[in-house]
Amino acid sequence: MPAEKIYMLASFILAISALGYSLYNGAEVGRRLKDQDEKIERHIRLSVQPNLAFGFYYNNEGSGWMLHNTGTGPAILKWFAVTVDGKYLNDWNAFHAALGLPSHVRYQFSVPYVDSVMPPTTDLDYGRLFWIPPGPTAESLKPLSRRVTMEVCYCSRYDECWLAGRDPRGPIRDSCKSPPTKPFRAPRK
User: Fold this and answer.
1) Which one-letter DSSP state was computed for residue 32?
2) In this structure, how many other beta carbons lie within 10 angstroms of the beta carbon of residue 108?
3) Which of 84, 100, 171, 183 could tie 164 with a disulfide, CB 3.0–4.6 Å?
4) DSSP per-residue string spanning 44-106
5) How far out from the chain centre does Cα 76 lie?
6) pLDDT grade, residue 158 (50/70/90)?
7) What is the mean pLDDT of residues 93-111?
8) CB of 73 within 8 A of CB of 168?
9) Where exactly are the structural domains of the chain?
């Protein structure tokens, strides 16, 4: 076999080998980049994940229920519900009556509305839902608090949703069931 043909065959084999190596290396780099992108996306999602939690509080300013976002990102509220003895209520006046609180008692309230955004906060005044100033009625809320359940369905900016309120272990991911038939709203006068 002439040297020229051997040289051409060797060049061809070397070129095919280089092409194969380049294709393999490109695929490997693509796989690694995809894996890295998934890790970065997961990190970003976790770095802006909300975490809503209810609590019954009492201190020298009174007593009542609060809702806090202790997560690292904003929570987009989808629905909010309150029950007393397992019965869904549709406003704070019904809540007030269901607990048998005296009609003359003044209270402060807020209603989480659908699609409102709740930022992360440590400000205890920000998350007050139902609050009674200090006094005998505020003291009477402590034993009554066991009869109350609150639920909220909320989502992150990435449409990952959780249901918070009933489960003592905390919010449950991908568990927002349909909202109660009666939406909770501001009381009518």
Assistant:
1) H
2) 13
3) 171
4) HHHHT---EEEEEEEETTEEEEEEEE-SSS-EEEEEEEEEETTEEESSHHHHHHHTT--TT--
5) 8
6) confident
7) 90
8) no
9) 1-47, 52-173
Two structure tokens written together for 82: 């309150």
Would you state the structure tokens that stand for residue 169, as one six-digit string? 């272990």
Give the residue carrying structure tokens 């440590």.
Answer: 122
Report residue 186 as tokens.
């501001």
For 94-103, b/e burial (b = at least 16 CB within 10 A) is bbbebbebee
Q: Rounded to an integer, what distance in angstroms lies between the CA atom of residue 189 and that of residue 179?
A: 25
Structure tokens at 31: 């796989």
> 172: burial class by Cβ within 10 Å (0-12, 13-18, 19+)?
middle
Cβ neighbours of residue 113 under 8 Å, at least 6 residues apart?
Answer: 77
The structure's pTM equals 0.73
Closest CA to 82 of 91, 74, 73: 91
* Helix, strand, coil percentages, rounded to 5, for the chain: 35, 30, 40
* Structure tokens given for 89: 């209520």
Structure token pair of residue 182: 């009666």
